[in-house]
Amino acid sequence: MLWGPEDYLIDGRVAEILQTLAKQDQNDPEVISLDSSETQLRELDQLLSEVSLFAFRRVVLVRHPVWLGKSKKGAPKDFEKIIKEFSGQDLGPLHLILTVNELPGKKLLDVIKATGKVEEVVGLDPRQLGQWASSELEKRGLKINREALNALTKSNRDMYYLINEIERLALCNPGQTITVQELTGIEQNITDLNIFKLTDALLRKNTKQALKALNFLLNKGEPVTLIVHMVSREMLFLGKVQALVAQGQSASIAKYLGKQQFRVDKMRRSAIDPRDMAQIFSRLAQVDFAIKNTSQDNNFLLETLVIDICE
To answer: Which of 32, 110, 252, 273 has its CA 20 to 30 A from that of 42?
Structure first.
């Protein structure tokens, strides 16, 4: 099981493992990649009871398995049973790789450790992230000034978003030195009226500032689906922090979630009552569905969502 805050780095570690196996066998392994769906446990059980017909080695890769958590009734117990049966069989070169952003509960973790290995893929600090971004730009024949590099590394965007931005910069600005003006959707200062200003205002339940930030984003042309995604992500993070605080884990939340301490502190200062979270998630789901499946005015939907969260 590989775990850590950045899917980009985790996927890189998966690629390293697959390359090592291919080098050992002098042949590529058969890789079966599963997404996170309700039918996965049944499918996983079937795949782990078979051997590959087309390659010497089979690797079953499961990204973000929902059944490692407590959301599915009976899922943790079913997964424990599958793993124990899998470890008790002699199926030759058959491997299971799980990737998660957070560790599962202790009981499941102990089951995994007893039959395999748990490896943390540590995220990058701001200095390392800056070095990585500079290196990726240099590979594409670009340079970047310090102001723009700081904007990239302090944007709170994940590394997949950043690598896509780097690819866009290379396509649109070949051979140039990148400045802040060339960046898209990434502000020099995350306290500006951008998407993080919106989520910060929501956390404070400041309706006026939240609507002002939302109108700025809409006028700037930010995709409404991205706005809903970012708000949902912040609310999910808030819910996790509130749940861990309620469990008395205040001292180790940042390390447990793999996030910076200042982000955890911001969540703990939020004016949103934990008792309101269920209703907020319900409204987010309603708005997300309406935007993707109806002809309702998207700006109106987002404005009412902001007011509902704040008031």
So the answer is: 110
